[in-house]
Amino acid sequence: MTRQEMNVIVEQGVRSSVENVCxxxxxxxxxxxxxxQIGHPLQESDGVVALIGMAGPWVGTGALSCKPDLACRLAxxxxxxxxxxxxxxxxDAVAELTNMVIGNxxxxxxxxxxxxxxxxxxxxxxxxxTTKIGGSxxxxxxxxxxxxxxxxxxxxxxxxxxxRGALNRLDVVGRMVTRS
Amino acid sequence: MPLDxxxxxxxxxxxxxxxxxxxxxxxxLGTILEAGDGFEAIERLKxxxxxxxLADINMPNMDGLELLRKMRENPQWKSIPVVMxxxxxxxxKVLEAADLGAAGYVRKPFTAEQxxxxxxxxx
Lengths: 180, 123
Description:
Chain A is α+β, with helices and mostly antiparallel strands. Chain A contains three helices and nine strands; from the N terminus they run H-E-E-E-E-H-H-E-E-E-E-E. In chain A, strand 3 and strand 4 (about 60-65) form a beta hairpin. Chain A is globular. Chain B has helices at about 10-25, 40-45, 65-75, 90-100, 110-120; strands at about 5-10, 30-35, 50-55, 80-85, 105. Chain B has a five-stranded parallel beta sheet, with helices on both faces.
């Protein structure tokens, strides 16, 4: 399977997964936008980013990112509660949404490449921080309109030709809080 | 007699959602207890008379499959029904859980109706 073919599967997987997760767990309308390929994802972030790794015949990382106010609304919809600021519960809710969205996308990918493992999510919250995942691979970026805001889904998958257990390392620079 | 339920998930969000969903089912359930991983679940099982377990598969420290394996090895806990609740859709994990004696399997995202349907025969 080529990278281009994988990108198509990733887009289909994210689309069905986001519609399923948001429709079932958030109870709000969702509109998945057109995907595009980008070279340097997650740079100059401002808000909440949740990342999760995948490993198997292909390795990769999936991430959800959004502004703090949307993170609060997403957590509120998921937990049927109200949040004014990003706290532990909001970070946990965004982590779980990431787990469900990327986990369900992984299931779609597994139909094509075989079983893959999924890590537990890491969540980062801060202002004007930079995130970089080593390896400078091409990423698929899919914008999603949900709960009156824009949620960005980022996915990078590469063939696991060297038997790696995870996709490189994560570097984060700036002031932030992290939760794994 | 109402069954005490143990919800095992490393996500506090999912534990909170499952608590709410279990209350919505109107099934004859007793106290709902929580654990963040398999090790905590073992402690809750030792200290309480648990009648039903809902457990995530993918957790740090001790995952749901290892918890299920330990429960099946223990004469006191081996007949407690365990329903696996997870994002893992792979056939491999489902079969492994079934081989270990899981009473059922619910995939995230889930609805209250799906949880209720899965628990109806167990409560």
